[in-house]
């Protein structure tokens, strides 16, 4: 993406950090990189058309003078018509080239922005609202299209045409030209005083529009919560305040622009009246010809368009800089590095690979990992664990212990502040993020489902998957009933955020999607949070089967889900508090005993029967019996 990369690689001052019109024009010009030939051709065509337009008053002068002398004028009229037609044709061709160039620049910027926003460091998404970032791809680039497709060439051609008209006007009558120049200079002073205000108001308006999009997206994304809590009016009022702010900024921009336009119009009309009155008096006094006056008046009227286009282009460039500032900010946000990172910044040394090497090391290991989203509040304070190949490891602990953060580090959404994450014995920093993520699949607690067909969602990681593979994971995830229920089966459109599915169904869709990728390590975050007791028991059996194919790391609050895991790691306040099998932890970990007691679990996974706990006990009994019927799969496995 030529234009966008040029725009954001330089220092801030070179990319529009200054507020001068010269700096703004230079920035807008850099955006046309890769389209310079089209800009040059369009400029030439526009100048040719303008030159033909400048020639028309001279022909009109000859027509007037020839008529006064009684000469034949039809050849001059034919010439005037030809000049007019050719001017229109060249102007139309030049305008088409400019519009196409503007669309090309916007396409480049949008490609660059989309690619950048999809690869930002995860921390950046916490600092910027998603819908506001989206508005930079849509609204702000649209503002820039008008600038690069019109304003830049208008500045060049308008200035040159105005200069040509002024030269011819000086040749016809220098005194009248000086009177016109005085009125135009007064308008220029007014325009210059308004440019900074127009740019500031434009920036505020673009920011407000982005805030509207962000607030509205938040409200629509949480619509059930909004309606249950009767917050429609409150949300409408909050978004309305954003709308009012955008309105205020837009009105200020319009006010300044209208003052600028009025100043230009008054200058043009005033100069025209001055020429008409003074020139008429001079013709009446026989100090000038009628033809000269007609030609001068035509040039004065022709001067209106180039001068208006120049003043309009200057204001448009300043408005465009408000949009460009936001685009440039997005293009400068930090993205995830693609290459592996080593301590010395060199490429990692080659290591032997293969099944034998992988079996010698766990699929995943964390050694004394520390991490904090905010340096003042550490989340992990020395976590160590291992997930051997084809083993089922569970991660439990109170809310806020750091379980989901472990998953975020394994997926390399973030990098640990200290300690090491290893895949098959290799430090994650010696591997690219793509290589790490190719090894894993995640079923998130939120079970992300996107708008599209059911098959699109299941085959998201492998769009070219065969029907047999898709059917295999549908059966494994227990989605047969969902496929049969939906009209169209796998071709059914499941709506925005999976609105046509229940929470448990969305979770099973996410599980099928993860299994289709055949990962070496499967991460399940609260896989039973949306399931009833019967489906929980069924999924418990499925997880034991999945562990025969790949390494399995499961986060769970329900101990009934993971009590038959090969190994259970207990986190407390960001530290590894205990590890072992269910019975061992009941005997040796007070925290685990407390968690088990709160869920009425006894040794062996049998629930306590107590008043008020019948539903929980029934849930644990069914899942526990299902897991025991499946039997243990291999010996207990713990950290190496």
Low-confidence stretches: 1-18, 606-640
Strand order within the widest sheet? Answer: 6-7-8-3-9-10
Tell me the strand percentage band. Answer: 5-15%
Number of helices: 22
Query: Using only CA atoms, what is the Rg?
Result: 36 Å
Query: How many E-type strands?
Result: 10
Indicate the overall shape. elongated
- What helical percentage do the residues reach? 55-70%
What's the end-to-end separation, in Å? 48 Å
Highlighted features:
10 strands; disordered C terminus; alpha/beta; 640 residues; 4-stranded antiparallel beta sheet; disordered N terminus
Question: What does the model show?
Answer:
The protein is an alpha/beta fold and 640 residues long. The chain has helices at residues 2-9, 21-30, 36-68, 74-117, 122-127, 130-172, 174-221, 223-228, 232-284, 290-331, 355-359, 403-410, 433-439, 454-458, 467-477, 480-485, 503-516, 533-546, 559-562, 582-588, 590-598, 614-630; strands at 364-371, 380-387, 392-397, 418-423, 426-427, 440-443, 521-525, 551-555, 567-572, 575-580. Strands 6-7-8-3-9-10 form a 6-stranded mixed beta sheet, sandwiched between helices. It contains 22 helices and 10 strands. Helix content is 62%, strand content 9%. Helix 3 (36-68) runs antiparallel to helix 10.
């Amino acid at each position: 993406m030529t234009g966008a990369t040029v725009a954001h690689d330089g220092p801030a001052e070179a990319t529009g950090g200054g507020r001068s019109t010269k700096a703004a024009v230079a920035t807008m010009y850099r955006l046309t990189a890769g389209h310079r030939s089209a800009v040059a051709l369009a400029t030439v065509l526009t100048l040719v058309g303008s030159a033909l337009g400048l020639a028309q008053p001279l022909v009109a002068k000859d027509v007037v003078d020839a008529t006064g002398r009684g000469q034949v004028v039809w050849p001059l009229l034919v010439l005037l018509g030809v000049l007019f037609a050719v001017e229109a044709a060249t102007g139309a061709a030049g305008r088409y080239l400019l519009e196409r160039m503007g669309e090309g620049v916007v396409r480049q910027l949008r490609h660059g922005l989309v690619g950048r926003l999809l690869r930002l460091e995860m921390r950046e998404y916490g600092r910027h609202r998603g819908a506001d970032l989206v508005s930079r791809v849509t609204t702000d680039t649209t503002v820039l299209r008008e600038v690069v497709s019109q304003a830049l060439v208008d500045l060049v051609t308008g200035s040159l045409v105005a200069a040509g008209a002024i030269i011819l006007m000086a040749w016809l009558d220098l005194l009248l030209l000086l009177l016109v120049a005085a009125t135009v200079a007064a308008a220029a002073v007014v325009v210059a005083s308004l440019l900074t205000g127009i740019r500031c108001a434009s920036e505020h308006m673009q920011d407000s529009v982005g805030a509207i999009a962000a607030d509205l997206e938040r409200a629509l994304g949480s619509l059930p919560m909004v309606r249950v809590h009767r917050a429609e009016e409150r949300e409408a009022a909050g978004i309305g305040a954003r709308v009012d702010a955008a309105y205020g900024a837009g009105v200020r921009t319009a006010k300044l622009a209208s003052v600028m336009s009025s100043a230009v119009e008054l200058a043009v009309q005033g100069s025209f009246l001055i020429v008409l009155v003074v020139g008429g008096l001079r013709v009446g006094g026989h100090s000038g010809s009628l033809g000269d006056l007609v030609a001068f008046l035509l040039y004065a009227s022709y001067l209106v368009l180039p001068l208006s286009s120049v003043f309009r282009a200057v204001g448009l460039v300043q408005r465009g800089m408000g949009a460009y500032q936001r685009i440039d900010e997005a293009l400068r946000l930090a993205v995830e590095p693609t290459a592996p990172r080593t301590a010395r910044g060199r490429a990692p040394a080659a290591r032997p690979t293969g099944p034998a090497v992988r079996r010698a090391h766990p699929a995943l290991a964390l050694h004394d990992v520390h991490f904090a989203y905010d340096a003042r509040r550490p989340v992990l304070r020395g976590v160590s664990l291992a997930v051997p190949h084809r083993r089922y490891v569970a991660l439990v602990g109170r809310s806020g212990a750091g379980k989901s953060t472990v998953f975020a580090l394994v997926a390399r959404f973030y990098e640990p502040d200290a300690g090491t994450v290893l895949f098959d014995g290799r430090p994650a920093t010696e591997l690219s993020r793509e290589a790490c993520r190719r090894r894993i699949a995640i079923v998130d607690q939120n079970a992300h489902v996107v708008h599209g067909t059911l098959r699109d969602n299941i085959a998201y990681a492998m769009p070219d998957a065969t029907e047999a593979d898709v059917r295999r994971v549908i059966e494994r995830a227990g989605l047969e009933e969902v496929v049969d229920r939906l009209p169209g089966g796998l071709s059914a459109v499941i709506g925005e955020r999976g609105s046509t599915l229940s929470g448990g169904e969305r979770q099973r869709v996410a599980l099928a999607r993860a299994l289709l990728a055949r990962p070496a390590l499967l991460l399940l975050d609260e896989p039973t949070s949306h399931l009833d007791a019967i489906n929980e028991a069924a999924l418990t059996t499925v997880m034991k089967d999945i562990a025969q194919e790949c390494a399995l790391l499961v986060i769970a609050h329900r101990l009934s889900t993971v009590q038959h895991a090969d190994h259970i790691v207990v986190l407390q306040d960001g530290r590894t508090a205990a590890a072992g099998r269910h019975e061992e932890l009941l005997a040796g970990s007070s925290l685990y005993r407390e968690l088990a007691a709160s869920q009425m679990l006894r040794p062996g996974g049998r629930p306590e029967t107590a008043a008020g706990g019948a539903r929980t006990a029934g849930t644990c009994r069914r899942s526990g019996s299902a897991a025991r019927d499946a039997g243990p799969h291999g010996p207990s496995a713990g950290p190496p």
